[in-house]
Amino acid sequence: MNASSASPYVLPALPRILITLCYDAGLLAAIGLAATYLFVLRPGDGRDRADSLGLRTRMRSVLSVVGGVLIIASYADLAVTIARSEDHPNYLGAFSPAVMSRFVTAPADDGDWVSAGLLALIQYGLLVVAGAALLASRFRRVRGRGVAAGLVLALFGTTVSALPTTADALTGDDLVQTLLIQVHIVTAGVWVGGVFGLGLLAVRDRRSGGVAPIWSTIWSRFSHVAAVCVGGVLISGLWLTWKHVGSPGQFLSTPYGRFLATKITLVLIMIVAGGYNQQVLLPRIARLGARGGAEVAIRHLGRVVRIEAVIGGLVIMVVPFLSGSARKEAAGAPASPIDGRLLALGLLLIVLIAFGLWSAGRFARSFARVSGPVEENQA
Q1: Which of 16, 191, 282, 335 gets the most CB atoms within 10 Å of its CB?
Q2: Per-domain residue ranges for the chain?
Q3: b/e 329-339 (16+ beta carbons within 10 angstroms → b)
């Protein structure tokens, strides 16, 4: 491939950037907050039960707002999808119900098993219903069922968006990429959304003048969820980076590479902050918990999580600018299709990352057990 075939970076239009930002934030928050509600904020016993039920009620209030955002953002993102399908995008005109109706009812192209419009209708329809379920979770008769339904529908919606319209796209390489994109979206959503939601609840607890004992259990539970998500983000992120960036130099020589390098740097900062929580603060909380002096460490951990949430927001702000590919901008060769060698390397990376995360968690738990009690002023 020669330099004449390079594809220059095109900055997305401002409406597309803003709408994509709102859509991504709404979708990731819906997935992350719902998963956190269902798997982390489980009711405890005694005093912990009362505290956890209060946190679950507040989380449903946040989820209802997120549900409303997801409904509006899904409608707007459908308009962006329609505008991008045109040679001369008209973002304002794409909001017209008549234009949307023509797009979703258009017949499939020759050779396609389904039209792009029908897939978009199913995708955004599922997300709108997911948003409605989250919105309704504030009502007593819905509650957890609404949250669970919202999470399942949101996951189905993201899956539909990845389906190809032609059977020719169902190659092994395309299927692997589609799967890893979904892994990237879901694990990033659970991680970033969970960090945001718990950070928000922790701020309110701090302002109320105390730290509920249940928080030590919540942070411990979430650390396990976050570790799995970090593994998913790393594995899928490495694959997607290789698909779009052909050499280290392209991180600096191409606009796409620079935006991606910014995103990777922010994600690594989040991982370091999470590692600090797991290796330092959680063992400290475990050692102090029996003496009733863990409040300072819990507050400290909450501050670190809020910093993670801010950085996660910056990551989401970078995503709309990741349009195109550094390989194409640098007139480089496309990534090789998956073969046995690449598959073996990928499996090895999965094993190494999983082992590393498991070892880190085991070390933190062992350190908490053998260190013994410490004085409260050390927290």
Answers
A1: 191
A2: 8-166, 171-379
A3: bbebeebeebe
Distance CA 343, CA 92 (A): 44
Alpha carbon distance 301, 217 (integer Å): 13
Backbone angles phi, psi at 234, to 5 degrees: -65, -50
For residue 112, report the phi and psi dihedrals to the nearest 5 degrees: -90, 145
Which two three-digit tokens encode residue 317? 């702000």
Report in angstroms the alpha-carbon separations of 203 from 199, 210, 284, 376: 6, 11, 21, 22
Burial class of residue 3 (count of CB atoms within 10 Å of its CB; 0-12, 13-18, 19+): exposed
Q: What is the pLDDT along the chain (379 residues), one digit of tens a residue?
A: 444 477 888 899 999 999 999 999 999 999 999 999 999 987 655 556 667 778 888 899 999 999 999 999 999 999 999 998 886 778 888 999 999 999 999 998 877 888 889 999 999 999 999 999 999 998 877 788 899 999 999 999 999 888 877 766 667 777 888 888 999 999 999 999 999 999 888 887 665 545 556 787 888 889 889 988 998 999 889 888 988 998 999 999 999 999 999 999 999 999 999 888 888 888 777 776 545 566 777 778 888 888 999 999 999 999 999 988 899 998 888 877 766 666 677 677 777 777 776 666 666 556 555 554 444 444 3
Query: 147, 38 in Cβ contact below 8 A?
Result: yes
| Residue among 239, 237, 197 nearest 219 (CA) | 197
Taking residue 363's Cβ as centre, other Cβ atoms within 10 Å add up to 13
Give CA–CA dist 45/51, Å, rounded: 10
Instruction: Kindly state the DSSP code that residue 333 receives in the 8-state scheme.
Output: P
The number of angstroms, rounded, from the C-alpha of 5 to the middle of its chain's C-alpha atoms is: 34
CA distance linking residue 28 with residue 191, whole number of Å: 9
Q: DSSP for 85-142, please give it.
A: TSSS--TTGGG-HHHHHHHHHSPPPTTBSS-HHHHHHHHHHHHHHHHHHHHHTTSTTT
Q: Which residues are bridge partners to 112 per DSSP?
A: 166
The C-alpha atoms of residue 167 and residue 112 are separated, in whole angstroms, by 7
